[in-house]
Amino acid sequence: MRLTRPFRRLSPAERRLWDAYPTGAWVDLRSGDPEADDPANGAGWGPERTVRAEVVAALLLGAREAAPGTTPGLRLAGARITGDLDLSDAVVGSKLHLLNCHLAGTVDLGDAKTQGLRFRGCVLGRVRAARCSVDGLLEFDGSSLRGLRIDNAHVTGQLRLAHARVDPPGEEGAARRAAMEDVRKPYSEAERRERGLDDGRRWAIWAGGAVVDGGAFLRGLRTTGGLRLVGAKFHGGLYLQEASISATAPAAAGAAEGGTAPDGPDGPPADDLASGGPPVAYAVYADFMEAAAAEFSAGFTAEGTVRLRGARIGGVLSFDRAVLKAPGRSLHLSHMQVDELILKPAEVEGAVNLGYSRIGVLLDRLASYPDRVQLNGLAYEALRGPWTVAERLAWVCRDPDGYRPQPYEQLAAWYRRIGHEPDARRVLLAKQREHRGTLRSTGRFWGRLLDVAVGYGYRPWLAGLWAAVLLAAGTAVFSAVPPVKIDPDHVRTFNAFVYTLDLLVPVSVFEQRGAWDPAGWTRWLAWTLVASGWVLATALIAGAARVLRPSATA
Question: Which residue ranges traverse the bilayer (predicted)?
């Protein structure tokens, strides 16, 4: 699009902008009064500060040539821009910089190719920039928006929304929705959810599949809807310090009878639904996101589930001093890969899921976790934090699904890697005790016997202690009530200690059993000593095997 002559009529403000564009000079329409210049009051600004969106679009699309030796650009401050700014499918060769402007209409950048776009301290309507390419900075610092959609967009510079306010877009009307459909092939329910038509959720920012080469700086962001970042790539990191994300669960739209919603690209996954409960409210929905780092820290607040299932974080993923609240699950971090996870929120309400994730370093503390923590399948290379072994054992016992062996084995393997073999044995003993609760009565009885005897082989010294007690008791009893010689003609000298020891040893060594027969009630003691000897020997062999082959249990 290229205009050969200006509009027939331009207001004074538009004329200033028209004349300044070839050199990229600023056009400042502000009065100097901060209250009067607040773009929140821009709907009441008069014609001296009003510019039509079509004039802005015409300039960006080449209505005027650049002045020789200068770089053209549109830089406008304190203006009320009326109408929709439609740059969809366009190729824009100059930069746009709006400061403290009021634009109530839609900014449409769908499929466009642009230079840097900056909307600083502005009040905007909906911004639709799906599949656009921005060669430079895309900025909304300090602005207020009615929804931002940048799915599958590519920003070569930074994405900035520091201290911005983003609310979900309003209803756009049935006419627009009908225009998007092919009457010969209407969308299925799954397709409508995929396109966001019947998602039932209120997304403030929709950035699925977006690629940002620079950092995404969303510090201090405020939203009343969720952030949808599925498959997004932030090569320079994602930074949400001090951001506040307040999400609400979808209404009946997209939800099945009984309060559960069907699975789909944007529907709540089945594992995030409580049985018979309402659909999940997502503050951040970022499955399969990739980032060099992700900071949900330093006062980050989320009212709703933060979900990063399958995310790949090349550096640090931090929830340090974050506030996380959700009625069901506050954090869903399963199947992730992250170099370092800092999980030290200031407050957490709702379950935490770390299942099947791969973490290099996990820095956390006991107060970071609620009563329900899913750890099955979690693997980590190092643990950091002021934890005792007892606290770590309480940590692995919080799985709402009950006993799982893998968290104990992973924790024991970690203690062994750092040379704390006694702590590793303590963890594995706790594992056996938890497993005992899942067995039938006979299994529980035998397990309790092994626990008392030798601590399932992880405390073999108990066998020696029991042997000493039994040896002392047998020696005392048989000294007081000696057994009867079986062969009176055979000359033998009775020794109560040797006799008791021979009963305890599974195979007679001193040939005392066959020479003496216990008398009266002492027979029960003799039989007890023989049975105990077999139990202790079996337990000692099992314990020795564990000591000699520790890696087999880890």
Answer: 461-481, 524-548
| Percent helix, percent strand, percent coil in the chain, to nearest 5 | 30, 25, 45
Indicate the average pLDDT of the chain: 84
Kindly tell me if the per-residue pLDDT of 526 is higher than 80. no
Tokens of 495: 């020794």
Using CA atoms, how far apart are residues 295 and 52, in angstroms rounded to an integer?
A: 40
Nearest to 236 by CA among 170, 315, 165: 315
144 to 39, 42, 86, 247: CA distances (angstroms): 10, 12, 19, 17
Contact between 97 and 139 (Cβ < 8 Å): no
* Cβ contact 478:495 at 8 Å: no
Q: How far is Cα 300 from Cα 320, in angstroms, rounded to an integer?
A: 9
**C-alpha neighbours within 13 Å on the C-beta side of residue 541:** 6
**pLDDT above 80 for 534:** no
Angle, in degrees to the nearest 10, between helices 522-548 and 441-454: 80
Query: Which of these, 203, 191, 179, 443, lies nearest to 304 by C-alpha position?
Result: 203
Contacts 24+ apart (CB under 8 A), 504-507: 504/467, 504/470, 504/471, 504/474, 504/529, 504/530, 504/532, 504/533, 504/536, 505/533, 505/537, 506/533, 506/534, 506/537
How far, in Å, CA of 75 to CA of 29, rounded? 11
Residue bearing tokens 């599925």: 230
Instruction: Provide Rg for the chain, Cα atoms.
Output: 36
Rounded Cα–Cα distance for residues 233 and 461 (Å):
56
pTM, full prediction: 0.81
